[in-house]
Every structure is written in C-alpha cells, then in structure tokens.
Here is the input.
Amino acid sequence: MWLWFHKLSSPPYAYRIAGMLRPWLLWPALLLMAVAAYGGLVLSPPDYQQKDAFRIIYVHVPSASLSLMVYVAMAIAAAVGVIWRIKLAHAFAAACAPMGAWFTVLTLATGSIYGKPMWGTWWEWDPRLTSELIQLFLYLGYMALRSSFDETQRADRASAILAIVGVVNVPIVKYSVVWWNSLHQGPSISKLDSPSIDSSMLWPLLLMMLAFVLYFAAVMCDRIRTEILKRERNASWLIENVTES
Amino acid sequence: MPGLLQLAMLVVGRDLKLALRHWDQAIQPLIFFVVVTTLFPLAISPELAELRRISAGVVWVAAMLASLLALESLFRTDVEDGTMEQWTLAGQPLSLMLLSKTITHWLLAGLPIVLMSPIVGTALGMPQSAWGALAGSLALGTGCLSVLGAIGTALTVAVRRGNVLLALLVLPLEMPVLIFGARAVDLSMHGEPVAGPLNLLAAMLLLFLSLGPFAMASAMRISVEN
Here is the structure.
C-alpha cells in the first residue's frame, strides 16, 4: 500500500497511470450520463407541483455535491502536499481548483434557471445559493493566490495553507448562512426540500451523480497530466518519453 | 531566553511603541470607519427611521473594511526590512510572535472601532439599548477579523499588489463573523436576547485564536523564504 503510494507520487509513474485510467473513467462516465439523462428526462414522470422544471436537478444536484467534494479533495491533497512534501499532491490540488469553480458556477447557473419558474426570480438569497456563492469566492481566492506567485513551489505551499484554512471554515460558513437565512425569511427554504423523492426520479439522480464523479476523475486525469507536463518540462524522463513517441 | 509571556509582551510593546510614534497613521483605520459610515446616509436617506433598519449592517461592514485596510501595514515593514526573516530564524516560536502582532493589530484597529461604535451607531439612529450588543459583538468579531486577516496578510505579504488579493482571500472567510455580529446587534435593537450570536462569535474567536497562529507562522515562513 505504502509502496504504491510512494510510486504514485513519482511524476513519471503518475503520468502513465493517469493516461491509462482516463479512458476507463471517461467512457463509463459518458455512458452513465446518457442512461441517467434518458431515465431522468424521459422515463421519470413530471413532478405533480413543479411539472417538468424539476428535471434540472439532474444537473444541479450532482454539480452542487461535486463543488463541495472537489474542495474537500483539494484541501486534502494540499494537506498531503504540505505534510509529506509531495509535489504531485500539490499538482492535484492545482488541477482541482478550476474544476471545482466550474462546478460551482454550473450549480449557481442551474439554480437560478430553476429559480426563475419556481420562485419567479433569478436570484433568491436562499441559504444554499448564498453559501454556494461564497464557495465560488473561496475558489476564486484560491486561484488568485496561486496565480500571484511566480515560483510554482511557493504558490503550491501558500495556496495549500489557504485551502486548509478554507476547509476548516466551510462548515462555519454553511451553518452561519443557514442560520442567517432561517431568521430572515422562512418560506423559500422549504421549496427546495421535497419531502421525499420517488424512486423513479431517484435512480437517475444517483446514477447521474456517479457519472459526474467519474467524469470529474476522467478530466482530472487529463488535467493532472497537463500539470505534470508543465512542472516537469525540463525533466529527462519527459524528454526521453517525447522523443520516443 | 525570555519566557513566552515576556516574549509576547515584548512584541506587543515594540509594535505599540512604533505605532504611537506614527499615531497619525495608526488612527487612519478609525477615521476610515467613520467616513465609510457617513457614506450610507448620503447614499440612502437622511431619515433616521430608515437608517435604523440598516444601521447594524452598516456599522459591521464598515468595521470589517477598516480592519481589512489596517492589515496592509501589519507585517509589511517587518518583512521589507528583514526583521521578519530574523524572527523566523530566532528560535522563538514564530506563531506566538505573529499572534502578538495580531493582538497589537486588534488594539490599534479593533479596539478604537469598538469604542467609537456607540457614537457612530447613535448617529445612524441606533437606540441606546443596543450599545452593549454593538460593542460586545464588535469586540469579539474584530478579534476574529484580526486573526483571519493576519493569516491572509502572511500569505500575501510577499506578493506584488497584494492588497486586492488580500481582500479577495479574506472577505469570504470573514462572512460568518459578519453574519453573527450584525445579527447580534439587530436582535438587541428589537429587544431580543443576544446571547446566541455572541456565544457563537466567542466560540469562533477561540477557534481562530487556537488554530490561526500556526497557519500564520507557516504562511509567513513561505513568504519570507527566498
């Protein structure tokens, strides 16, 4: 296990593994996405209150959960990078941030598209929307800090500290926003909380979540390879590799 | 070898002395705080009834911005003249020294705002009954802001044009403090108990005080190494 871990932290090995894994993640992801989209958009019945508009949850919910999951993954990678001084973990964290930011943007966009017919407004200061917006600010801050250093190593370690501080703060932000909102306005919160969800609507959602996770992993394989290429551009193994192929 | 408390006192004393020699610079955050709160009546309405509704938020946002503004000078001179580099090599706990500097930051940029806040609040139509909650929430809250801000400053001190970046990093992290702080003032203006948000602010302050210095120290080590 440890041996494998150490091996994985070497760039040439990780570069190869990521390249090998990518098709095994991407094609299942696309397949599952197609199945889940068919299940969600065609097979599952329209909601008795929200009609067909609820179907946006098949994009909204998976991207919302990924926007959080990616942040946690990024912070864990950053912590691993700081504690054991593994460069590849930093590369992973760097590759995570824009993906996470995009999932957050996607969540916000689908949320407000959903909000227009449901609540009659594009933007509501709903706790979830608000905390998602703050999440986006955290991603943007992380990326801004990273880009403001010229040296990769310093950028890695400085942004790692920010990611760790951020992940400690994320639950506080979540709960404070929920609490803030529950005191100011009641009704809009319960609109998102459907009491229970029928299994014909649930399975496409779960499948779509799995598809999103796989898709994220597949894109990460590409991104991490790019990141390795950028960081190791002068390394001899890479030059050998390129001249071979 | 000085003891830890003595070390902290030394750092606080030195920074206070430096600040008092440039007292006209040290009071800038306070002036900024008053100026920003003056903008709101001009922009919204001179009617006290209308201002009263938003007064808690206005005072809190202004305090947050003033604290942010004062962060700029927190570590910069020490990093530029090499003092900070000496500190990282000194063998004394860097986290404690940075925490002491943060405490000085609070004494200079937090405490004056806390003391000034009842006056500003009254000018915005806040009833006298809310003074306690206002000063209390600001006292706890600006402490949180100082610690979070010091982490952000330690990260960005070596960066060119770091102050916009600093705001971008620190403000999202500070939002919970703003929520609880403004909420406490709002509750007390409506005559409701304020213990809940104040307790939460105190809990956050303790959390930040206990974990923050380590983040500050490791951030500072990255910033000064070359």
Notes: The first helix of chain A runs from residue 2 to 8. Chain A touches chain B through 27 residues (CB under 8 Å).
